[in-house]
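Hey,
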Amino acid sequence: MSTQAPAPTRREQILKEAARLFAERGFHGVGVDEIGAAVGISGPGLYRHFAGKEAMLAELLVGISGRLLAGGKQRAAEVPEGERDPAAVLDSLVRGHIDFALDDRPLIVLHDRELDRLRDTDRKLVRSLQRQYVELWVQVVCEVHPRLSEAEARACVHAVFGLLNSTPHLSRPGALPARAATAELLHRLALGAFRAAADGSGPASGEGGSGV
């Protein structure tokens, strides 16, 4: 049986190219015609899929926040509650976010630069999804490192997100290690940051099975 991923839909192709172009040249530096040309259709043809650039931006930013939250919940629920290993869950959360940070760099740039361009309702939805994602991590971090207070764990989670989401700014791609090596480096740095924070709060605990 083939395990090949299905080909992206035209709508997905449009969003991918829109994200790339918006990240490279800014939201106002890209026209509908240019996005259409990148996917081989006329600019006006895009309106069969989206109402305009603002709708594309909203779907990109709301969509990635929703996917991160859904993916995090899935990883946290993969092991039955009675058999749950919090360190393994944290490891899985870190690896999932690293995949996002390395494979969806244009979306990180878009979030940093263009979030304020969203309508209030869309921006509030993005913030709500992000808060839920953070709190999911906080719960797991507190289980792995119980000497951390909830506030400390939340600060650590935000700091680790800052570390992982810095990938668009690290350097030109050719100057970095290969993807697998970069992923493992980020993995060690992220888990190391949580351990260092726990060490500062007292004897580290709950670190078994971290995979490092």
